[in-house]
What we know:
Elements lengths: L2 H21 L7 H25 L5 H32 L6 H9 L3 H12 L2 H26 L16 H14 L6 H11 L2 H19 L9 H19 L6 H11 L7 H7 L4 H26 L1
Helix pairs in contact: 1-9, 1-13, 2-5, 2-6, 2-7, 2-8, 2-9, 3-4, 3-6, 3-10, 4-10, 5-6, 5-9, 5-11, 6-11, 9-13, 10-11, 10-13, 12-13
Amino acid sequence: MEFSLIFESIFIISIMIALGSLISRTFPFNSDTRKLLVSLIVNIAMPSIILSSILNVEINRETFKMIANVFILSVIINLLGILIGWLFSNTFYRHSTKKREIALLSGLGNTGFIGIPLCAALIGPEGALFAAIFDAGVDITLWTIGVLIIQKNRRFSFKSLKELINVPTIAIVFGLFIAYFNMKPPAVFIELANQLANLAAPLAMFYIGILVMNLYRKKTQDSDQEIWVPIVVKLIVLPACVALMVNYLYLKSDILQTILIQSMMPSLTLASILFAKYSADENMGAFTTVLSTIVALITIPLMLYLFL
């Protein structure tokens, strides 16, 4: 992997985040505009990049085996990050009431909004495909183990599994289904997916930039002392552990690179939404997401330089 491409991609991401921050000055960022942006990203851009990746990659039985490996590794890495975050919070903030938030922010990354477009840019269609499968593992972990951890009464409800039935997940299932049966959609459909896929990175980065400015205006100061734990674990400790782990795995270089890049992603964008839903610290979720995204612009190329 060429490091000039890595720095170029990170630079472009930084510019798009900055543009999002500037755009936020031109309109009020409320629940309606937030829902609109999230809907465009989750329901149009992300499914398009997933379908585009699947339709531009030759998928056979061996590919399906690799997809299963990526999914399993994703769940293992997510749980490892949660465990490390929990151990760090118990070590440094034993009496904290936010151990649950710290654990989830340490293990679950922004593998959808940032990870899939970045893997597509650095690795190509195969990278985007495996990144989407990795993100599906994050979703599974979030809406099962994550919900169980964040709830105070520790009761799991199958109603939370409804969140797994979303457009990106449907796109993965549909795309793999037509690939498995060697069904070729019309050329116009493939071209539409390719063009809409180009929306993913700009829209996601604009959204992050808007979050940065919105949080700056609020000047949130809660949980300032504790947020260093999920940031350090998510951006440095977990990727280092994953880099050591993948050395013992006999997988294609594209898969190993995708797994490593996805492990370096900043904290989950949906964290503040999840925390609000289950009466956890929503401000901590938003603040950690934004700050870890900014720090990740430095740590991602650094970690890739060290481990690739």
